[in-house]
């Protein structure tokens, strides 16, 4: 009974406090202009805060200054009364409605604005007068901007890197960035801008870069680039504070030229840029048969832009047409140093046992010269569909008769016929066994490389590709004679040298695969480190 009485009394007191605090309090209007929003050459924006109760409605059409209407825009509303005193729908709840109005572009100097009047809850309310200064953005050697195009000599289709450097000595918060290098209509851009931050002497550097390609020759104009911002100060009590004046850095307008290709362009030039070498091999094991597709791999490596390499002219080569049928087996796979093309190749004629030599052309931007790329002729192990025992017997009949003491030995005629045949069969079996052993050894040598290529194709699927990376690294150690062929698990590896490096990357792969807590690196970094380590072991094997 007493508890109910006390609760009722408390509720009554709270209601009386609320009525006393808010019901009869008139609305107010506060006008302010942030120095950051009053810069010469840019529209000045004024902020209007209307403090009212929820029951007091704002007539948005009633805002005026000196009797002239002012257009305002509501940007936010916040409830200010404590939730312990009011519910959200209580008409006595305090509300702060924030509006903005655009004063337009004003000349430099000290200005005033206001008072502003508006009808709040049916009552005309007047604000304060706001004084402010329209200041010009300041150029300072503590805030510098540069724009660059790389390389200096550019040809159609060549990869171009556009780079901005924004350098500042004081902590800076940018408010404006005008970067025309990233919106040139003559450029086909690739991806999105990349940001890199670092220190250089006394300056903090923000480097923003974007890659693209020009499809045709000509001069390209770049307008003035601009960056503006305020020095930023971290205040423990108020948070981040932006200190005027507004700082400005800019680069002058300039032009760069995409050079036309020089005269003398070869007929088989398809836009490849760089100096490259080509090599090929048959991936499908066993003999090649007429009309049966086999996998042909062509690898391109060298110095240049591998993305410009296309082998479309290979398919249309006169030495290929009518002899082989070529179709792309899958999309090309590219690493830092090679580009792999896989073709489904079909032999159309039975009297051919070599994939012909092919000559293609590239252009080297560094030397300004056209170069010839040669794909050497590739011997093919073609199955002879018309051969057999009869052909071998005919050859044996042409052998000279045995002479000397052995001719006195009585040998059955049938045995004389079968003896050379048996010898040839034994020789053929030995030759096949040796060949299979050699092919198995070659396949084993390629196995690590093939696994790594397959892993890179599945890079977007870590659960499938990372186990392949693990197997490729262990196989590469075996192929390089760095570990025993009996070792199959990472816990059997030594912690010394490059073997220890492989053991560590295998541990990181397990963390990524099984999502262990504390996994230090994302999958993309693990891929990059594993690929670099694989190349390192490969180079060690070549050097030995």
Summarize this structure as a short list of keywords or feature phrases:
alpha+beta; 7-stranded mixed β-sheet; 4-stranded antiparallel β-sheet; 7 helices
If you had to describe this structure to a student in words, what would you say it looks like?
This protein is α+β, with helices and mostly antiparallel strands and 544 residues long. The protein has 7 helices and 29 strands. The strands form 8 sheets. Strands 21, 22, 23, 24, 25, 27 and 28 form a 7-stranded mixed beta sheet that branches. Strands 1-2-6-5 form a 4-stranded antiparallel beta sheet, with no helix packed on it. Strands 4-3-8-9 form a 4-stranded antiparallel beta sheet, with no helix packed on it. A hairpin with an 8-residue loop joins β12 and β13 (159-168). α6 packs antiparallel against α7. The longest helix is centred in the C-terminal third of the chain and has 45 residues, at 413-457. It is elongated. The relative contact order is 0.06.
Overall shape: it is elongated
Low-confidence stretches: 14-23, 387-411, 440-445
Q: In angstroms, what separates the terminal alpha carbons?
A: 97 Å
Structural class: alpha+beta
Proportion of residues in helical segments: 25-40%
C-alpha Rg, in Å?
Answer: 40 Å
Largest sheet geometry: 7 strands, mixed
Strand composition percent: 35-45%
Number of strands: 29
Mean pLDDT: 82
Q: What is the count of DSSP helices, taking H or I runs of 4+ residues?
A: 7
């Amino acid at each position: 009974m007493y508890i109910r009485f006390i609760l009722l009394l408390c509720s009554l007191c709270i209601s009386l406090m609320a009525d006393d605090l808010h019901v009869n309090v008139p609305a107010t209007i506060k006008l302010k202009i942030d120095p950051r929003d009053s810069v010469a050459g840019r529209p000045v924006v004024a902020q209007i805060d209307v403090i009212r109760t929820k029951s007091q409605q704002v007539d948005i059409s009633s805002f005026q200054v000196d009797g002239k209407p002012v257009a305002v825009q509501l940007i936010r509303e916040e409830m200010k009364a404590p939730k312990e005193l009011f519910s959200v729908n209580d008409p006595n709840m305090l509300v702060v409605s924030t509006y903005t109005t655009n004063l337009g572009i004003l000349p430099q100097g000290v200005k005033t604005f206001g008072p502003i009047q508006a009808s709040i809850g049916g009552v005309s309310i007047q604000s304060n007068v706001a004084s402010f200064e329209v200041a010009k953005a300041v150029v300072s050697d503590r805030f510098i901007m540069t724009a660059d195009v790389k390389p200096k000599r550019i040809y159609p289709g060549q990869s171009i890197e556009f780079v901005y450097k924004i350098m500042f000595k004081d902590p800076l918060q940018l408010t404006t960035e005008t970067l025309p290098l990233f919106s040139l209509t003559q450029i086909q851009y690739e991806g999105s801008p990349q940001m890199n931050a670092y220190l250089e002497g006394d300056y903090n550097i923000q480097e923003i870069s974007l890659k693209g390609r020009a499809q045709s020759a000509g001069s390209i104009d770049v307008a003035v680039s601009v960056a503006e911002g305020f020095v930023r100060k971290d205040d423990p009590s108020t948070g981040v504070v932006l200190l005027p004046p507004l700082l400005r850095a800019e680069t002058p307008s300039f032009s760069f030229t995409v050079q036309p290709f020089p005269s003398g362009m070869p007929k088989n030039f398809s836009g490849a840029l760089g100096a490259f070498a080509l090599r090929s091999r048959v991936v499908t094991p066993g003999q090649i048969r007429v009309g049966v597709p086999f996998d042909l791999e062509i690898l391109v490596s060298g110095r240049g832009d591998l993305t410009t390499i296309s082998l479309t002219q290979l398919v249309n080569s006169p030495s290929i047409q009518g002899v082989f049928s070529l179709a792309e087996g899958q999309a090309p796979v590219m690493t830092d140093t090679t580009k792999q093309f896989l073709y489904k190749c079909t032999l159309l004629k039975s009297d051919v046992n070599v994939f012909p030599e092919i000559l293609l052309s590239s252009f080297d931007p560094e030397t300004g010269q056209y170069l010839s790329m040669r794909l050497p002729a590739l011997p093919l192990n073609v199955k002879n569909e018309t051969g057999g025992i009869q052909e071998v017997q005919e050859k044996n009949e042409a052998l000279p008769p045995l002479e000397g003491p052995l001719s006195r030995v009585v040998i059955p005629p049938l045995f004389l016929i079968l003896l050379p045949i048996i010898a040839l069969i034994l020789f053929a079996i030995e030759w096949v066994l040796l060949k299979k052993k050699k092919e198995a050894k070659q396949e084993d040598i390629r196995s690590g490389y093939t696994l790594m290529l397959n892993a890179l194709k599945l890079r977007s699927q870590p659960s499938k590709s990372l186990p392949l990376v693990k197997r490729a690294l262990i196989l590469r150690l075996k192929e390089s004679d760095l570990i025993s062929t009996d070792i199959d698990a990472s816990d059997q590896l030594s912690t010394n040298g490059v073997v220890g490096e492989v053991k560590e990357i295998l541990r990181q792969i397990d963390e990524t695969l099984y999502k262990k807590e504390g996994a230090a690196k994302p999958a993309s970094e693990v891929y990059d480190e594993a690929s670099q380590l694989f190349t390192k072991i490969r180079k060690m094997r070549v050097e030995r």
